[in-house]
UniProtKB/TrEMBL annotation:
This is N-acetyltransferase domain-containing protein. Pfam families: Acetyltransf_1. It comes from Pseudoalteromonas luteoviolacea NCIMB 1942. One of its GO terms (molecular function) is acyltransferase activity, transferring groups other than amino-acyl groups. SUPFAM superfamilies: Acyl-CoA N-acyltransferases (Nat). Residues 7-157 form the N-acetyltransferase domain. It comes from the Bacteria.
């Protein structure tokens, strides 16, 4: 792992909530109209936890916020049988290409194990699975997620 990279609960670094809300809004909501910036911020505020879901993990390189990812419940309303989800994996554009997303996902898998979660699900717009295939998430099916075609994947942990 990149020795300069450190992970923290967003609950311990709430000063980054506004930046993360802005990242999420611009990446996934601004064009689609799925959520307003205020709604994104309110969803993130629910993830200010350490021992229960939803929770967010931030990645810092020194004092610079470089990434974020979440563990949450029932990300897709159509698939309520799938309980625990990994989502919101985002790396700042200036920090991409340094394997930060990979390290965030691996860290969240460890957090899921700590919470005694047996399987994680995710949705990705990368229909080939991308990073998640490399981390042994198995493709389940393609689906529509609020107007976007996604691949739903699962990993037993």
């Amino acid at each position: 792992m990149n020795k300069d990279l450190a992970f923290y609960y967003l609950a311990d670094k709430p000063q980054y909530l506004e930046t993360i809300a802005s990242w999420y809004f611009k990446e996934w909501c601004e064009q689609s109209g799925r959520y307003s910036l205020l709604e994104v911020k309110q969803k993130l505020e629910k993830a200010l936890n350490q021992h229960s879901l939803p929770l967010s993990i931030v990645a810092l390189r020194g004092d610079e916020l470089v990434g974020v990812a979440e563990l949450k419940f029932h990300e897709m309303d159509a698939y309520l049988e799938y309980e625990h989800w990994l989502g919101g994996v985002f790396v700042s554009p200036s920090a991409r290409g340094a394997n930060i997303a990979k390290h965030l996902v691996l860290y969240l898998i460890d957090q899921a194990k700590r919470l005694d979660i047996k399987a994680l699900y995710l949705q990705t717009e990368s229909l080939g699975g991308g990073l998640y295939s490399k981390l042994e998430f198995e493709p389940l099916f393609e689906a529509d997620s609020k107007g976007v075609r996604v691949l739903v994947m699962k990993k037993e942990i």
